[in-house]
Design a protein that fits this description.
The chain is of the alpha+beta class. The chain has 3 helices and 5 strands; from the N terminus they run ααβββββα. The chain has a 3-stranded antiparallel beta sheet with strand order 1-2-5, with no helix packed on it. The chain is globular and about 50 Å long. It comes from Acaulospora morrowiae.
Length: 139
């Protein structure tokens, strides 16, 4: 069938666990280190990868953004536009991770975000789990 993909080729195996296609655990461990400084946030990000949630989160260090410009400020947050230098992950097989490259994005900075509690993180996780995983969203 045209457009279908076979994962039976040797180079499409995960080198960490020998599974075909993208191995979620190996992928997260190798390519998406989580260093947010908040264990609850780190665990939320990891859970979106392990549990095959439609929108997988990724910790992006601020230095991976350029041209950060404030758009507006509200009661709970400030909105910025920026360029994400690396861009989103487009594919991963074996040892190779491909990214889209420079992407214009929206950043939302929550006021008092240093004091996010575990109840807030749990609510984010519940929201992520309710998103259907039937189609991909191009950002």
């Amino acid at each position: 069938m045209e457009g279908s993909r076979s994962f039976k080729k040797e180079h499409d195996k995960c080198s960490g666990c020998e599974n075909f296609d993208r191995c979620t655990d190996c992928y997260s461990e190798k390519f998406l280190p989580v260093n947010s400084g908040n264990l609850d946030i780190d665990n939320l990000i990891k859970a979106t990868h392990r549990n095959n949630i439609r929108y997988r989160l990724e910790w992006i260090p601020f230095e991976d953004f350029t041209d950060v410009q404030e758009v507006t400020e509200g009661g709970f947050s400030t909105i910025f536009t920026a360029i994400w230098i690396k861009g989103r992950v487009t594919s991963y097989f074996g040892e190779k991770l491909n990214r889209k490259g420079h992407m214009e994005i929206i950043l939302k900075v929550l006021k008092d975000s240093q004091n996010i509690n575990s109840a807030f993180i749990k609510e984010l996780h519940n929201i992520a789990k309710t998103q259907p995983n039937s189609s991909k969203r191009n950002v």
